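User: tokens in, sequence out, please.
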């Protein structure tokens, strides 16, 4: 019996859509046979997309694309436009009867994230977020195993320090994409842009069911090349103190610092480090890309601090840029998947927004899973 191939729709044909999502189609079981459509108002962007997926049907607007064919049960839409456009696109994609995988951050406010989840529930479909680029990491899995083994004792403190002296998205990095430095379009600076990955890493490691954002701050160090021809109102250096609560465990204080621009030094040894400390030991690791790397396990031996370096292999064959599509596709098919969908996607997004709200109001923000 003939069956209709399912469709995958791309809203946005820019760099991340081509480099990350379109390239990951080859990792899907039906990646060569499913119907592909892409919408973007830029003819040049559509032309570049078709260099990656020559069979893709192109559209100038996404509404026309979404109504171009009837939905099938496993269809999904990839929203890869600037964050301030996500809400309307996500809601219309759900209204078309399809699942939605949305780029990070989900939106620019907690209310937007909640609206998206409500639309997913109404449609009976899944909402996924691309903060899962570093999910299912071999490194994070090894950290969880070390904690579960009891070798670290009772966990009480964690740090995420990611300091880069000049790496502002929209200025030094991807300078042509100025929306990154406009709060009304991107929601913020490094906390909004890269925080979804970094905070998801600690969520994966510690698995809290409740979080307090106790205090937070943002700043924007000045440089001679700060743009003056466009809006530039996002932070480039920020920090927060969080408390992670897990059932039957002691609360863990998590200190987070993120800099795209600082006149101070980058982090010692490497610009991006994570550490979890317990009463019997500590574990440190560096920012993860494809899930493999090294852990440094430190503990006491006969009154002396010793450190063991542990090499960790990848958990699977996926690269950070194929994970969002591959993992979300598994969830859509009803398979076991490490994808962050629905409530989990919203929880990680709300943590980002809660940091900003705490910094703006000075009030503790509480999140519950």
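Assistant: Sequence out:
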């Amino acid at each position: 019996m003939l069956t209709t191939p399912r469709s995958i729709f791309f809203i946005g044909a820019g760099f991340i859509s081509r480099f990350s999502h379109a390239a990951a189609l080859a990792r899907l079981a039906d990646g060569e046979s499913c119907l592909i459509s892409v919408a973007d108002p830029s003819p040049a962007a559509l032309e570049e997309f078709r260099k990656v997926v020559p069979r893709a049907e192109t559209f100038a607007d996404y509404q026309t694309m979404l109504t171009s064919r009837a939905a099938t049960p496993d269809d999904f839409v990839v929203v890869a436009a600037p964050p301030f456009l996500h809400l309307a696109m996500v809601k219309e994609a759900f209204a078309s009867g399809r699942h939605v995988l949305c780029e990070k951050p989900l939106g620019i406010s907690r209310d937007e994230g909640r609206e998206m989840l409500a639309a997913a529930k109404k449609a009976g479909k899944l909402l996924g977020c691309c903060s899962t680029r570093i999910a299912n990491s071999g490194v994070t899995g090894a950290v969880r195993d070390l904690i579960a083994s009891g070798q670290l004792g009772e966990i009480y403190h964690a740090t995420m320090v990611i300091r880069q002296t000049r790496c502002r998205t929209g200025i030094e990095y991807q300078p042509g994409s100025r929306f990154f430095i406009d709060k009304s379009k991107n929601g913020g600076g490094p906390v909004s842009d890269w925080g979804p990955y970094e905070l998801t890493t600690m969520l994966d490691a510690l698995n809290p069911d409740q979080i307090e954002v106790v205090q937070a701050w943002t700043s924007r160090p000045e440089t001679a090349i700060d743009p003056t021809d466009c809006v530039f109102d996002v932070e480039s250096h920020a920090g927060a103190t969080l408390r992670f609560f897990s059932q039957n465990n002691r609360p863990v204080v998590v200190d987070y610092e993120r800099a795209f621009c600082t006149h101070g030094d980058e982090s010692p040894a490497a610009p991006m480090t994570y550490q979890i400390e317990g009463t019997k030991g500590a574990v440190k690791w560096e920012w993860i890309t494809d899930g493999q790397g090294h852990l440094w396990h430190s503990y006491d031996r006969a009154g002396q601090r010793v450190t063991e370096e542990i090499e960790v292999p990848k958990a699977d064959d996926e690269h950070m840029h194929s994970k969002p599509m591959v993992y979300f596709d598994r969830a859509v098919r009803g398979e076991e998947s490490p994808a962050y969908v629905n409530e989990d996607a919203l929880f990680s997004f709300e943590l980002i927004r809660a940091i900003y709200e705490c910094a703006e109001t000075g009030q503790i923000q509480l999140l519950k899973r």
